[in-house]
Amino acid sequence: MSGRPDAQSVEAARKLEVRKRLREVEEAILARAPEHTPEPSLERVAQVMELLGDPQATFPVVHLTGTNGKTTTTRVIERVLREMGLSTGRFTSPHLHDIRERIALNGKSIDPERFIQTYDDVLPYVQMVDDRSQQQGEPRMTYFELLVVMAYAAFSDAPVDVAVVEVGLGGTWDATNVADGKVAVITPISIDHQRLLGDTIGEIAMEKRDIIKPGAIAVVGRQDPAVDELIAEKALEVEATVVREDTQFEVTALDTAVGGQQISVRGLAGEYTDLFVPLFGQHQAHNVATGIAAVEAFVGGGEQPLDKQVLQAALAELTSPGRLEIVRRSPTVLVDAAHNPAGVQALRDAMNDSFTFGRLIGVLSIFKDKDVLAMLEALEPVFDEVVITRNSSHRAMNPTELGALAAEVFGEDRVTVQPDLLEAIDRAAELADEGGVSGGVLATGSVVTAADVRKLLGKTDT
Fold it and tell me: For residues 417 and 393, what is the distance between their CA atoms, to the nearest angstrom?
């Protein structure tokens, strides 16, 4: 009698146990204070890191902050470094569908078994710090802090040759900032998260610039002049080198292409012409240029050009899920994670540059703590009509309230309120079809909106 059925049964039981344990771990992590209510302290994370032997110091780090473009730029840098043959860790947030997306090894989400093992490995040290903190009347470690600890532990254990790490929020007090980046990347800074970071662009920049560490190279995307001054001041203080877009690197050519765009970039050390990038929008071209400069800064101090064939191969395979991404055809349905006025402006420009819809319908759900009116006003010229709905987050604005605001901006005749997201997508598709084959749908307003629509339409790859 063959032992095969028994072996299959054992494997099925093992997989079931892993799924069960994974749910338990995720629930335990989610039970902690959420990432949008961080505590302004690095003390707890630093204490756990010390107890673990400072795993974040065992690999070089490329550290990224900014208001918009962070995740795409992180993915550009990681993808190019991996194409060069380096073993990579990537940390991004928030996730679209699965918490494990945040921690990636060589471009793939950490597998369930390793995620569980990493959690089990760090938990005793986390509990020690939690106990100490609570005895002093302070909170436990947050959801985000624990994930940062897990990421750095997993990267050290792998081990990786380099970690590309996106901040969660700000810079100064962000949990990721217990690591010292060899390269600090600052994508464009604008107004967002005012409750936590400050009401002015200067206050926000003061927080974000603190990822620049002594001796680092700071790669800086396009900024408001006042922000540039604050970054230069910080770099001088810590004796870091600053390289800026439009000065030391730039996009020199950009043309729309089928499935994306063809760009040319002047980097820190080389000229890279006719690069195909399968992403839409001028803002993505600038994200790619910033990513290329960051890779040059990391591998050769900004003095060695990259191999163009390696660069072409990496960029051709680049993905940025939820960022102006086509998730269905007939009619075309796109999703975009724009969630603040600057992000929406970039989205509007990208729609004008990259698409020629005869009729475009918006599906909108926006968090109530955002500058909703400014976002609606920026989107008004883009859409023929909008369908207002609700995503799966408790932070989403009530559809009736959002619909009333939208009616003030778009006019009542251009606004439909449909609280159920799936029905909202269906209604938007019907309205788009009135434009014939040139009709389209764009779902936006939040990372959660983009993620929810992706999932409803059967797209969960990241």
Answer: 18
Task: Give me the tens of pLDDT residue by residue for the chain, a chain 462 residues long.
Answer: 445 668 888 888 889 999 999 999 999 999 998 866 656 789 999 999 999 999 999 999 999 999 899 999 999 999 999 999 999 999 999 999 999 999 999 999 999 999 999 999 999 999 999 999 999 999 999 999 999 999 999 999 999 999 999 999 889 999 999 999 999 999 999 855 444 444 688 989 999 999 999 999 999 999 999 999 999 999 999 999 999 999 999 999 999 999 999 999 999 999 999 999 999 999 999 999 999 999 999 999 999 999 999 999 999 999 999 999 999 998 999 999 999 998 999 999 999 999 999 999 999 999 999 999 999 999 999 999 999 999 999 999 999 999 999 999 999 999 999 999 999 999 999 999 998 889 999 999 999 999 999 999 999 999
What CATH code is assigned to 32-316? 3.40.1190.10
Q: Are 157 and 103 in contact (CB under 8 A)?
A: no
> What residue spans define the domains of the chain?
32-316, 325-456
CATH architecture observed for domain 325-456: Alpha-Beta Complex (3.90)
Instruction: Report the predicted TM-score, pTM, of the whole model to 2 decimal places.
Output: 0.94
**How far apart, in Å, are the Cα atoms of 86 and each of 64, 89, 227, 348, 383?**
19, 10, 33, 36, 43
Q: CA-to-CA distance for 450 and 392, rounded, in angstroms?
A: 11
